[in-house]
Amino acid sequence: MAALVEPLGLERDVSRAVELLERLQRSGELPPQKLQALQRVLQSRFCSAIREVYEQLYDTLDITGSAEIRAHATAKATVAAFTASEGHAHPRVVELPKTDEGLGFNIMGGKEQNSPIYISRVIPGGVADRHGGLKRGDQLLSVNGVVSGGLKQVWDPAVAVPG
């Protein structure tokens, strides 16, 4: 028997979560201030914007694999989209000197995860932090001219490492 694929229904899920929070508030089992704060976040315009971007990316990204893999890759792309919207809007070349301490950033994604490669962390005080050209959520398009995992977005940076 084939499994049915349910359409993405995050709005319904958020509504259900708010309903459950209201029940918890009435039960008195948990501090009402924290429950109310979480409820406000879930009902905020910001949460709605995140949900809308996630749903749009979920429907448009070319991701094969299980629903879990697709959801995970979409979540990463959503974070990257919001991070990119805060700063640089166009691909750029960032040159970092190669040192014994490394380049000063961590990455996530890649072929194994069926996802573009993103900067997951810029290490405070590291080469990338001192340079200032990279930020969390940037996508690596190429390193030393080698394309990294397929161009999926056009607004993310390229990184060049001399030497």
What's the quick description here?
By secondary structure, this protein is an alpha+beta fold. The protein has two domains: 10-86, L27 domain (Helix Hairpins), CATH 1.10.287; 105-147, no CATH class.
Q: What does this protein look like?
A:
- This protein has 163 residues and is α+β, with helices and mostly antiparallel strands.
- The chain has two domains: 10-86, Orthogonal Bundle (Helix Hairpins); 105-147, no CATH class.
- Helices cover 42% and strands 15% of the residues.
- The chain has five helices and six strands, in the order ααααβββαβββ.
- The protein has helices spanning 10-27, 32-42, 45-60, 67-85, 127-131; strands spanning 93-95, 105-110, 115-122, 142-143, 146-147, 158-160.
- The strands form three sheets. It has a two-stranded parallel sheet with strand order 1-6. A two-stranded antiparallel ribbon has the order 2-3.
- β4 and β5 form a beta hairpin.
- α1 (10-27) runs antiparallel to α2 and α3 crosses α4 (67-85).
- The longest helix has 19 residues, at 67-85.
- Mean pLDDT is 77; it is low at 150-158.
- Belongs to the lin-7 family.
- InterPro entries: L27_C, L27_dom, L27_dom_sf, LIN7, MAM_complex_regulator, PDZ, PDZ_sf.
